[in-house]
Amino acid sequence: MTTWQDEGIRIRRMVPEDYEEAYALWERTPGMHLQSLNNTYGGIALLLTKNPNSCFVAVDADGRVVATALGATDGRKGYLYHVAVAEQWRGHGIGTTLINRIYDVFKAVGIVKIGILVVADNVEGQEFWKKQGWNTRPDVIYFDHNL
Ligand SMILES: CC(C)(COP(=O)(O)OP(=O)(O)OC[C@H]1O[C@@H](n2cnc3c(N)ncnc32)[C@H](O)[C@@H]1OP(=O)(O)O)[C@@H](O)C(=O)NCCC(=O)NCCS
Asked: Structure pTM?
């Protein structure tokens, strides 16, 4: 069976220069929550600067971004953001590989707990996390506030 690696897909750290292609992927991925003020170039570049080792892209043989997974930590807990795989590459294990890379980085710096916010109507996304062994937190209500 041909794998994504055989097809020339490779995984590398995300850099700010990937923003435009990554954002285009997020825009065409239903279930991504992009309205937040944090999703500007500046917001993502800041996240990458603070978390340079735990944010990854998968790029195809032509160097185009086909998947992203951003891992960020405040030093105590880890969070995943923008886990997305281009539709034509789903179901090949790329999403799992990307998050496993983030787990490894987090574990190496002593992070033992990770979380992700998934929008309520992204049922497919929720199924993916359940399949990955994640638990929902119905006891928690998320608040946010613009500064
Ligand atoms: C969710 C997503 C990132 C998964 O990426 P992927 O590369 O297709 O996932 P993988 O190939 O690594 O799949 C891993 C396992 O999860 C399963 N899976 C993938 N998507 C699933 C879904 N929507 N529902 C249930 N199971 C799913 C796969 O069947 C696979 O199981 P297997 O190992 O038993 O075959 C991708 O489908 C996507 O980009 N979805 C839209 C964005 C999104 O919802 N992101 C997550 C919420 S933030």
From this structure: 0.95
Query: From 3.30.710.10, 3.80.30.20, 3.40.630.30, 3.10.180.10, which CATH number describes the 10-131 domain?
Result: 3.40.630.30
Question: What is the maximum span of the chain, computed from C-alpha positions, in angstroms?
Answer: 51
Q: How far is the CA of 39 from the centre of ligand 1 (A)?
A: 22
Ligand 1 near 81 CB (within 6 A)? no
Report the separation in Å between the CA atom of 92 and the middle of ligand 1, taken as the mean of its atom positions.
Answer: 9
Residue-by-residue DSSP string for 98-116? HHHHHHHHHHHTT---EEE
pLDDT tens digits, one per residue of 21-55: 999 999 999 889 898 889 999 999 999 999 999 99
How far does residue 129's CA lie from ligand 1's centre (Å)? 8
Identity of residue 129: W
